[in-house]
Amino acid sequence: MAQLKVTQIKSGIGGTHRQRETLKSLGLRKIRQSVVREDSQTVRGMIATVSHLVTVEEVD
Questions:
Q1: DSSP characters for the chain?
Q2: Residue numbers of the chain with a pLDDT score lower than 50
Q3: Please, is 19 exposed, middle or buried when counting C-beta atoms within 10 Å of its C-beta (0-12, 13-18, 19+)?
Q4: Do 19 and 60 touch, CB atoms closer than 8 A?
Q5: Residue 60: its pLDDT value, please?
Q6: Is residue 11 within 8 Å of residue 49, measured between CB atoms?
Q7: CA torsion angle for 2, 49, 15, 27 (degrees, to 10)?
Q8: Distance of CA 26 to the CA centre of its chain
Q9: What CATH class has 3-59?
Q10: For residue 35, what pLDDT is reported?
Q11: Who contacts 59 (Cβ-Cβ below 8 Å, separation ≥6)?
């Protein structure tokens, strides 16, 4: 199954509570921190919620 590398590029400080909690559930705590997650509908939905705060790359 494909994997996604999610990197936080902006702070969640000015965001809503939902956006901050989504970053936390993805495992992102600091700017420029990256995590690798399985590509699933759940993760895609979380990424869509904070799409303006993260970048996404596919990893093989």
A1: --EEEEEE-S-STTS-HHHHHHHHHHT--STT-EEEEE--HHHHHHHHHTTTTEEEEEE-
A2: none
A3: middle
A4: no
A5: 82
A6: no
A7: -30
A8: 5
A9: alpha beta
A10: 98
A11: 2, 3, 4, 5, 36
Distance CA 32, CA 51 (A): 14
Which structure tokens are listed for 7?
């990197």
Supply the DSSP string of 42-58, one letter for each residue.
Answer: HHHHHHHHTTTTEEEEE
Structure tokens at 52: 């303006």
End-to-end CA distance of the chain: give it in Å, rounded. 9
- Contact between residue 52 and residue 10 where contact means Cβ atoms under 8 Å apart: yes
Can you give the pLDDT at residue 20?
97
